[in-house]
Amino acid sequence: MKLRSQSWFGGINGFAFAHRAGMRAQGFSSDVFQNKPVIGICNSWSELNPCNSHLRLVAEAVKRGVWAAGGFPLEFPTISLGEVFVKPTTMLYRNMMAMDTEEMIRCHPVDAVVLLCGCDKTTPAQLMGAASADIPSIMVPGGPMLTGRFHGQEIGSGTDLIKSWNSVRVGQMTEEEFVEMESCMSRSVGHCMVMGTASTMTSIAEALGMTLPGSASIPAPDSRRLAIAQESGRRAVELVAEDLRPSKILTPEAFENAIRVDMAIGGSTNAIVHLLAIAGRLDIDLKLDDFDRISRTTPLLANVKPSGEYLMEDFFYAGGLPALMREMGDLLHTNALTVTGRTLRENIQEARIYNPDVICARRAPVRESGSTVILRGNLAPAGAVLKQSAASAHLLTHRGPAVVFRDRDEMLARIDDPALEVHANSVLVMQNCGPKGGPGMPEWGMIPIPQKLLEQGVTDMVRISDARMSGTAFGTVILHVVPESAVGGPLALVKTGDFIELNVPDRRLHLDVSQAELETRRACWFPPPPHYQRGYGRIFLDHVLQADRGCDFDVLLRGESDLDADGAARVAGHRPSLD
């Protein structure tokens, strides 16, 4: 077996001398790095990313597995994207992290890579980078936090924060209680313990076949998290001998499995953008309509917040994703190859549901169809997204007058103004929050209910924007409107008082304004000024695609591979410098 790493370490020449000497400088003897698979551990650890702050410990477990299997583990960092602190949004930097991951894999002497992820964008970014680099890869998620507990009740990050803040706004909860709750919600390291974007994306990674079975939902502090990390390290060494690369696993059938699982778990709407981006790296023709088609025939089986009642720790104890996928049975392509070297069918055949209240049977689902739908109409000609499982049933067919905010700043300034002309039937519309308008398509889509309506008992309204929404959020919120308003999409032409019709059964989103009037308005429209004139921000604005294409950069879509058959960089005449 010819190892990719031996292009660096093999042979008697000045270049190999320098590479071997570099390893010796760290105290490694030559028998460690010559003729042994070098396993890169791509670590998204950061103290600025609480969800991933334990990944150093996970990396040590991976190393144990690599050493035990006869490989040589080398840990390397990439940027880390944490939802808690990054402003305006981690989505602005997902593509940067994907590029970082790809290039660090590509330019270093690694034969396989173990991807350590957790928080929302770290998982898709690493999958995008690994798909483009296409050397043997396996993913190890960091896992969700332990269940939060407050005054005898289980609480989940994001979801219960939103509910509690609304209670504070209307005087049903004191500020003292709110601050007390702050210390009760996040009881351990790990990502959100609801079915937010983090748990959705790690579940999708497992459904795609890129993790060992059961990896997605083991709680972060559970000793089994380290055990499965060790086994993943061992498996990474075997992947090299089998030459099992992402391109052999991430097939169209694998993507259909991932979409079905997303619909069955009540996954985050963000999964749509990320799956489209990963598929684009592989030249797989995935479309928004594929999500709606699959959603119509997929029951929601996971009774987990925000679409249900329980939390990720409960989901794990109930059998986790393998049990849910086994219950889905014939809905999946069970012959799909996975990173185990076995088929999905082989991976899940022994799985069992231990709590049918958490993972429901096919005959008694949470709801008959999937969690997310795709809407179209003259307001969203290229599509929009709604999470129906977290919406209010009485609003799924609705007609009401628009209350328009030009951007998020205006919305925040006016939303609680007692003089705002708004009522329960109104449709809140926010413009200029998409990929270019945000910038980065931030998670601003869950526009707050105006305080005066909260005080009247209104808990949900139809809300529309070209933004995204946290996977922990809920409500009748229409997102990802394409084209976005900042590039002149119809959303930019909506005015306060225009009537908007939502019909989820018909998948329709319609602005009741004549085409002639829209053309008149378009003639007067002008784009907002760009947010950036230089640096990465300028690159982002110049190259980002719209939401229906995953918001990846146009220059990163799959073309002819930059790696040769051995996985080495195909750059003519290039050799590392001795300097």
Describe the structure in your own words.
By secondary structure, this protein is α/β, with parallel strands linked by helices. The chain has 2 domains: 36-147 and 187-348, Response regulator (Rossmann fold, 3-Layer(aba) Sandwich); 372-524, 3-Layer(bba) Sandwich (Glucose Oxidase, domain 1). It contains 21 helices and 14 strands. The chain has helices at 6-9, 14-24, 30-33, 55-68, 91-107, 122-133, 159-169, 175-185, 197-208, 223-242, 246-249, 252-265, 270-281, 288-296, 312-317, 320-328, 344-348, 408-414, 451-454, 515-524, 535-543, and strands spanning 38-43, 72-77, 112-117, 137-141, 148-150, 153-155, 372-377, 380-387, 397-405, 427-430, 462-465, 477-479, 499-503, 508-511. Strands 7-8-12-11-10-9-13-14 form an 8-stranded mixed sheet. Helix 12 (252-265) runs antiparallel to helix 13 (270-281). The chain is globular, with a radius of gyration of 24 Å. Mean pLDDT is 94; it is low at 560-579.
